[in-house]
């Protein structure tokens, strides 16, 4: 892994939330390198700080202390406008509950991202990549959960992000759809070279990752490597 | 406090922004309701005590000259309880330091103070003394405007004699609560006076010993319903003495104006607030439906653990009634203040011994009841939703909103031209038809108020323009006490400063068509005259026909005739034989109900040599010419009234620019409350519903301004559509309200300039843009990191 360049670097990242009078220390000094083109899975117990860490990586939250740099540039102190610009240009999100706009068709949902991106794919092409060209004019309510998640992936990938963040992308899906989504993620990772960071509870999925970071008590407790990651379809559940 | 009440308090705290928006709209509505009705009550209260303390007449007869003894006998007519004869003339005052002689009405009063009909109330100084014949009491308003105080000596031209008069007091009278000079539209206290003189002095100076030219009478209370019949009887009995006018109290100028104002206030007190209350009810409906949807699982759980529908219904009713009560209470306070402002404004225009703002608990109670009633109406739909919820189903999350194409998508060219954000907005609006309709209706209501406001200003401007620039093109009207021969016109044409002069022959008369009667006058004007131009409703000049009459539409309506019909005319001069004259065409008159005829033809049908009642004059406008003209006019014998049209126009414009524009700003602020209230309510609900959607947009890289722009576009679309719908609605309202304002004395054109439409749309856009600040602030305060982890 070390022969790949570092895309993102987290150094001693802390995040504290003030809940009433109590300060909740969610991240307590995270150090983590994310390499270009890798598939990194983050695992941890509920409340261990996975989602908060993911938010830091994606630029939708900022550390209370510490430094995050992307391609060498410090993003932890950016103002709202530049941070938004970072997300717009560099990051694609896939959420557990898809977060599609119910009043837009699949194609239009993808266009929400392509309309603001610098050098996007054609939305139809993005949907084709996820195998949904036949259903591009369907609305979210007319699509299955797996299909909705594929639309969300198309939306994420369509702007050619360098980094794609998936927060429990298969958490709301059945087995068949889970495999389909994972295959797709893996294919996008391998074919486009997009760096992927994924949160998941499913132990089986860790075997398809290049690396697995375990988070406990707000810190990276362990990072393990897979010398030969399995294909999604080879996973044993 | 029950648990449900505790929940209610928290729900209220959570939704306070939206409730405030609704309450503000209710407050304005109730404020107008309470404010206008309180002002009307203040006026009614002042009027009733004033009328009774001055013993205001029920009937008025103006005539040429009648023996006082003959008039006294009229008191025997059944239904009449008291009759008073008096002498009344138009004279000119020659005040020191004033260039222009000032028209003044002189009315006789008994030499010794007694409680006569149409009595006066002394404000400063005292009633007449025994010593001097030439004592006068002057109307308080005129005295103040002209700085005349008891003890002053003034000069007046009485029956062509310059007389010195001694001011002994100032007074007010219920007969002249509102007073304007003849032919004028507004009260300009300094330009027209009112003066009371001793009966004996009036008899001597005007040659009216044992005679009178004005009769006022009181009716027995049971006969008041028959005022018109008794007026007719009196007028018939006095006909041999040349009756110019015979009026009941309802037709007399000052009571008529006051009645009109009260009618207007009472009508507006219901029309105007209904706009606000309807919008508030609709918005409350949206809010309650949203609350029912938002609390679906809570309601389901409460039902499941044993809460009855009734308890839940009251719980949600309390929520809406709180908004109603808050708005109602604020509205009552605001209404009391508004009534004070209105009442103070009336003090400027109406003369009352006392006109103060009072608190009417019954009105406050009515205001609160109306606000509660409307807030309950606003909950009905939401409560219906809650009642129908099945607990088992309600505890499960609601089905996701349905997607699907909307009809606009079938218009491919249009649809594909739109960007994704517009598509999303349009779909959202078309799928939430009810809510969109409420937003559009609210904007339409707001814009119709703005249109109405601009319409009032435009209509009054148009009235001034038509009256002074189109119909009356002269600078001065010189009206004579008696008819003059043609040499007077030649004389006036030679006056310094006169550019052009035209004769007018005025024939007071009674028009009759079957059983419809109306006393008015025919004005004979030169057929190709330049100074008087009868016009139609569009302000276009109507050429004077060689024979026949041009009659005001309102009068034709009153007589039940149309153009081409004939009317019986009984003139109060010449041979006094009834003539049947054709009505050639209808005209529009803003002031009075004018009837015009060809000057020569009118003299001809009356079988008399051309005579002149009035001369209309166009003068040079330089100060030297004006002074020379006034100096000549001042000494002119037989002159009764000098009307300065420029002065009237200026006074009107002054009033319109002051009062009307001030009211317009207040009305536009009221409309802004509707716009802001509806926009904020709609947007805050939308933001709360679409939090996850907005958070996703932020996550995938939309700037806050881009997310806010979605709401801006949506609000602009809704409000521009609503405003466009409100334009004809406002115009229709304007026409209706202007119809309500029409009296025998005035009619108002319903006019709306093209620019006013543009201003209305521009204001709507401005309201949307201004509300965007709050939208941005609300968006900024959203915790969208948290929203992202919510399951929709």
Can you give a write-up of this model?
The complex is a heterodimer of chains A (237) and B (792). Chain A is an alpha/beta fold and 237 residues long. Chain A has a single domain (36-64, 79-234), classed as 3-Layer(aba) Sandwich (Rossmann fold), CATH 3.40.50.300. Chain A has six helices and ten strands. Chain A has helices at residues 50-58, 80-90, 106-114, 123-129, 145-157, 175-192; strands at 6-19, 22-35, 39-44, 65-70, 73-74, 91-94, 163-167, 195-199, 211-216, 219-225. In chain A, strand 9 and strand 10 form a beta hairpin. In chain A, helix 3 (106-114) packs parallel to helix 5, helix 4 (123-129) crosses helix 5 and helix 5 (145-157) runs parallel beside helix 6 (175-192). The longest helix of chain A has 18 residues, at 175-192. The mean pLDDT of chain A is 89. Chain B is of the alpha+beta class and 792 residues long. Chain B folds into four domains: 20-57 and 253-399, no CATH class; 61-252, no CATH class; 432-473 and 649-792, no CATH class; 476-620, no CATH class. Helices cover 53% and strands 19% of the residues of chain B. Chain B contains 24 helices and 20 strands. In chain B, the strands form three sheets. Chain B has a six-stranded mixed beta barrel. In chain B, strands 13-14-18-15-17-16 form a six-stranded mixed β-barrel. In chain B, strands 2-10-1-11 form a four-stranded antiparallel sheet. The chains are: A alpha/beta (237), B alpha+beta (792). Chain A binds chain B through residues 51, 55, 58, 60-61, 80-81, 84-85, 87-89, 91-93, 95, 97, 99, 101-105, 108, 111-113, 115-117, 138-142, 155-156, 159, and chain B through 400-404, 419-421, 423-424, 427-428, 431, 692-693, 695-704, 706, 784-785, 788-792.
Short key terms for the protein model shown above:
heterodimer, A: alpha/beta, Rossmann fold, 6-stranded mixed β-sheet, B: 792 residues, alpha+beta, 20 strands, 53% helix
